[in-house]
Design a protein that fits this description.
By secondary structure, the chain is of the alpha+beta class. It has 4 helices and 3 strands. This is Helix-turn-helix domain-containing protein.
Length: 71
């Protein structure tokens, strides 16, 4: 069973969309198609996102652009 910390970590789609700088509509599409594999949980009919899961997702899908040296 999840502890209180885990439950407080969960956020609805609007908060997750803001956190990921996207839209609720995009999150719904991604859940439907499996695109981007953003982790989420379903509790009954509710869709919830874990802040810690989203932080891990961002860390895994972040990159730094490295340009060739100065001219």
């Amino acid at each position: 069973m999840e502890n209180k910390q885990d439950i407080q970590d969960l956020m609805p789609p609007l908060a997750a969309a803001i956190f990921l700088c996207t839209t609720v509509k995009s999150l719904a599409k991604w859940r439907s198609t499996g695109e981007n594999n953003v982790p989420y949980r379903k509790l009954g009919k509710k869709v919830l996102y874990s802040r810690s899961d989203l932080e891990k997702y961002l860390a895994k899908h972040s990159f730094n652009s490295v340009e060739g040296g100065e001219s």
